[in-house]
Amino acid sequence: MDERGMKMFHGEDKGTSKRRSELEEYEDRYYQELKGHYIRIKVSDSHYRCPYCRSARDYLFEDLLKHASRISKNLKGTSTKEIAKHLALERYIRKYFSRKVNAENSSNRRLSSAKDDQQLTLSSAKDDQQLTLSSAKNDQQFVWPWMGVIANIKTEVKDGRYVGESGTKIRQELEKKGFNPVRVQALWNYRGHSGLAVVEFNKDWVGFCNAIAFEKSYAIERRGKRDFYVSRDRGDKLFGWLAHDDDYYSRGILGDHLRKKGHLRTLSDKEAEEQRQRSMLVADLQKTLEIKSSRLMEMESEYEKTKHSLDNLVTQKDEMLRAHNEEIRKMQQIVRDHLAKIYLEHDKVTQHLQAQKYELQQQEEELESREFQNEGKRAKLRHDKEMVEMACLEQQKANNNFLRLAEDQKREKEKLHRKIIELERELDDKQSLELDIERLRGALQVMKHMEDDDDVDLKQNMEEIEESLEAKEELRKVLTVKHLTTNVELQDARKELIKTFQNNTSRAQIWVKRMGELDSKPFLVAAKRKYAAKEANVMAVTLCSEWEKLLRDPGWYPFKGITEGENRKVYFTPN
């Protein structure tokens, strides 16, 4: 603490000595933080900010100095830490910023602000360099990993052995001060706790800075290495310093521990080793980058090949599907034209039979009206009528057969259509399977190029893809054989259907087709010849009903044909 800070406590009783000691300790700590540039106070060329106040208010240089002085003088209602923070801030400003601000007032504001920033940067860099290299001049050797020594740890005798504070408690105290030790290990010998402890820091430059700060903090409080060996009355205060070569080669438990846990190294050795490691890392990264780039180019080439192959397969699939659809359309058109031709011929035959029937009815009516006496003509007319009736029955049977044949052909067409749909689906499955096979082959080739001896997951994926590829290849072969078999069956069925349609036109030889109910007049004429006039009407109706019932039975055949020589005669077979 400076003289002004000491005067603030002048005249107070001895009860404030403890607070004064804490104030000095806190002030030195916060001053070292400001000096090490861990905390920034300058926010622009001409504005500053108090880092210890919550309000983010900007000050000019004089206003910030007045603010720090006012808070540090306010002893009532202010904590010891707040006073120490603002005392350290005032001390730091007066030492490092006062001359810069005076030069700023005598020149242009913008130019001088730039010079101030440059001087502040140079001063900060100089302070950091002095802080880091002050202990490393003349290639001074340190124990690496960076280690510090804590001495004068309070011990007491218990059960015939010396015991003292554990390393964990000391490490927690050092962490509170911001030194960030890795571990603190107390040194023990055959008599117990030796009163010494070794503080280990990180191996990097941050750990070295923490070790230097650790040593400086004890040196500022006059509890460094030199003070430990010179002082006669050490009291209960702890002493600490950074382990150097003299500690490393010293005799006793401390030297043994340092030689066991570390070795000597200069800062230039450390820098050279890091430079060598960085060079090796850069070389390895460049080599890895070249390998990855080469693999990437190979993968891109394989990708282009696979993509081109898949595009060709898709094009072939579209062409095959288009040709297949065109063939199906042509077949359907042929079937429709053939059915239309059959229906047209059937209508012509039906009209011809109706005309003949009408002509015969006219002749019958004419014969009845004239009451032919010629039995020969009547017999001939009866025979012609019977022939016409037989032709009508035969036409009705032919119609039933035609309808049944049409139904069979319809079912056959539906069956063929379902077969065609199934073949199309199998063709799509086959083509989709071929695409999957090509895709898996491409993925397998890509993974082969990406194969690495240490990549177990990649090898496992390649094995799974190869198994899947073999399974799909077997399935493709089975589908191909099945497709060929069903295609042969489909072609045979198509030929058979076309042949059936062609043969169906031979049925267009029937002349008469009777429509609707039976005509009761022929039954009445026949009944009058056999029965009396009173019974003739009843018997005619009865016979007509029986014939209608028999005609509805598809298994009943009223005629049978007998061939005698070259002439074929048809006789009625009564039931």
UniProtKB/TrEMBL annotation:
<dbReference type="GO" id="GO:0031047">
    <property type="term" value="P:regulatory ncRNA-mediated gene silencing"/>
</dbReference>
<feature type="domain" description="XS">
    <location>
        <begin position="139"/>
        <end position="249"/>
    </location>
</feature>
<feature type="region of interest" description="Disordered">
    <location>
        <begin position="1"/>
        <end position="21"/>
    </location>
</feature>
<dbReference type="InterPro" id="IPR045177">
    <property type="entry name" value="FDM1-5/IDN2"/>
</dbReference>
<protein>
    <submittedName>
        <fullName>Uncharacterized protein</fullName>
    </submittedName>
</protein>
<dbReference type="InterPro" id="IPR005381">
    <property type="entry name" value="Znf-XS_domain"/>
</dbReference>
<keyword id="KW-0943">RNA-mediated gene silencing</keyword>
<dbReference type="InterPro" id="IPR005379">
    <property type="entry name" value="FDM1-5/IDN2_XH"/>
</dbReference>
<feature type="coiled-coil region">
    <location>
        <begin position="282"/>
        <end position="482"/>
    </location>
</feature>
<feature type="domain" description="Factor of DNA methylation 1-5/IDN2">
    <location>
        <begin position="513"/>
        <end position="569"/>
    </location>
</feature>
<dbReference type="Pfam" id="PF03469">
    <property type="entry name" value="XH"/>
</dbReference>
<dbReference type="InterPro" id="IPR005380">
    <property type="entry name" value="XS_domain"/>
</dbReference>
<dbReference type="Pfam" id="PF03468">
    <property type="entry name" value="XS"/>
</dbReference>
<dbReference type="Pfam" id="PF03470">
    <property type="entry name" value="zf-XS"/>
</dbReference>
<dbReference type="InterPro" id="IPR038588">
    <property type="entry name" value="XS_domain_sf"/>
</dbReference>
<feature type="domain" description="Zinc finger-XS">
    <location>
        <begin position="50"/>
        <end position="90"/>
    </location>
</feature>
<keyword id="KW-0175">Coiled coil</keyword>
